[in-house]
Amino acid sequence: MKQSHVMVSLDLPRRWRQAPYDLGSRLKQAGCTHFKVHDPFPTMDLAATAKYLSTSLLPGKSATVMLDNKEHDILSRVMKAVENHVRMGFRLTTVHTMCGREVLTELAKEFGDVVVAVTTLTSMQEKDLQEIHDNKKTHAEMELHLGRIAFDCGIRAGIVCSAPGVPALKEYVKGVPFMTPGIYLPSQGQPSDQRWAATPKQAVDFGSNYLIVGRSILGSDAVIEKINGQHRVVQQEIPVHDPEEKYTQVLRETGIQ
């Protein structure tokens, strides 16, 4: 589990929404073979998305496409959702660990090579987690707790956690790839909505197997929120017009390339 990959999160900013196929093609030409998408995906139906992105430009190889819907429901509904994702052609799909042991165990039995367990969201503050779960666990403790539950239930396709949370999980979770969102290029600065973020190099050093990178490669729209009755920009727009170069830059910073 030492090898690391860059998985591009196709949460498209405005400039790419009208040309997602063109974007996918450009990234594949740059060598990208791992993608993350979510539902709804602008201007593309999910089955077509899975089929298109899974087609690698490398002879004899296919790309890995993960659907990141973070399914969280009763057993019958989650099982049906995952079954549909597999039928559409997604190699991986995410389920939240808060579904509980019964759901995770049954999913591991039926879709063991497909289901990826999400621990905590990298955007959540520690006080929010403590309030929601009504306990005093730190973010790191909660992440470890949920990751261990997923592993005990048989989840082996992957565990989503913060990059700083990987070392602690690796002490208990063996043979499972760690997927870490919140990855950003130092030149662009840490996103304002990510509490547990890391640079590509930091993520690799922590032991991440899949670095999930979105806005550092694709750019992002400005984030505007209403604060004290006034609309303010809480995160500046990141304009990116050369996703191939940004993808290559992330690879260089990790040492993957």
Name a few traits of the molecule.
257 residues, alpha/beta, TIM Barrel, eight-stranded parallel barrel, two-stranded antiparallel sheet, 10 helices, 10 strands, 18% strand, globular
Which bin fits the share of residues in helices?
Answer: 25-40%
Number of domains: 1
Q: Based on helices, strands and strand pairing, what is the structural class?
A: alpha/beta
Assigned CATH class:
Alpha Beta
The name of the CATH topology is: TIM Barrel
How do the helices and strands line up, and which of them pair or pack?
Layout: E1 5-9, H1 20-29, E2 34-37, H2 46-54, E3 64-71, H3 75-88, E4 92-96, H4 101-111, E5 115-118, H5 126-133, H6 139-152, E6 159-160, H7 166-170, E7 178-180, H8 200-206, E8 210-213, H9 215-218, E9 223-227, E10 230-235, H10 243-254
Parallel strand pairs: 1-2, 1-8, 2-3, 3-4, 4-5, 5-6, 6-7, 7-8
Antiparallel strand pairs: 9-10
Helix pairs in contact: 3-4, 8-10
